[in-house]
Amino acid sequence: MKIKIFGLFLIVALSSCAYSFGGATIVGLKTVTVRVFENNAPLVVPTLSNQFTEAVKTRIRNQTRLSITATDGDAIFEGRITGYDIRPVSLQSTSTPTAGANRLSITVAVKYTNNIKDHEKESFEESFTRTYDFPLNGASIQSLLPAAIENINKQLTEDIFNRAFAQW
């Protein structure tokens, strides 16, 4: 009998907890506009602007129920890619120095505008930077860059999404 009462108590206690590990706060928001992130970096990759913009949209589609609209969203993401840089991070010990690994860095300036008055998440304007180290292992940089850019885009969109919607 004590076990049944304890079990019932445990079920009631656990069911009354309202923990959410999704973390997104979108109450009051129904739509979002994601404007094209222009590439203003000194070193320009022609496809990076479109790839990053689509990565932001994909993150929102996959983790919220918000509708993405072309204009006048309840929230608006806009910005520009301000930095794109590849540098060697380790040199191989040979007579002619060659990069053993490279570091790709991408910086994005983001402006998030929340158009819902008195919403718990406020607007912000902030820069986000992420890096990714990759060894060449005999391959060309051009063959490894698409995977490196995709990795950084995932990291950056996670940072931006969490800054705009997370309950941290």
Notes on the structure:
Helices cover 33% and strands 33% of the residues. It is α/β, with parallel strands linked by helices and 168 residues long. It has one domain: Double Stranded RNA Binding Domain. Strands 1, 2, 3, 4, 5 and 6 form a six-stranded mixed sheet that branches. β4 (75-92) and β5 (98-114) form a beta hairpin. The protein starts with a helix and ends with a helix. The relative contact order is 0.19. The model is unreliable at 6-10 and 12-22 (pLDDT under 50).
Defining traits:
168 residues, alpha/beta, Double Stranded RNA Binding Domain, six-stranded mixed β-sheet, 3 helices, 33% helix, 33% strand, elongated
SSE inventory with pairings:
Elements: H1 2-16, E1 31-34, E2 38-39, H2 48-63, E3 67-68, E4 75-92, E5 98-114, E6 124-135, H3 141-165
Parallel strand pairs: 1-3, 1-4, 2-4
Antiparallel strand pairs: 4-5, 5-6
Helix pairs in contact: 2-3
Briefly characterize the structure.
The protein has 168 residues and is of the alpha/beta class. The protein is built from 3 helices and 6 strands; from the N terminus they run αββαββββα.
CATH class membership: Alpha Beta
Here the CATH topology equals: Double Stranded RNA Binding Domain
Main beta-sheet annotation: 6 strands, mixed
Q: What is the number of strand segments?
A: 6
- Alpha-carbon Rg, integer: 22 Å
The assigned structural class equals: alpha/beta
- Average pLDDT works out at 84
Q: What percent strand?
A: 25-35%
Overall shape: elongated
CA distance, first residue to last residue:
42 Å
Level-2 CATH architecture: 2-Layer Sandwich
Q: Can you count the helices? A: 3
Order of helices and strands: HEEHEEEEH
Task: Specify the helix fraction band.
Answer: 25-40%
| CATH homologous superfamily label | Lipoprotein like domain
Poorly predicted ranges: 6-10, 12-22
As for the number of domains, it is 1
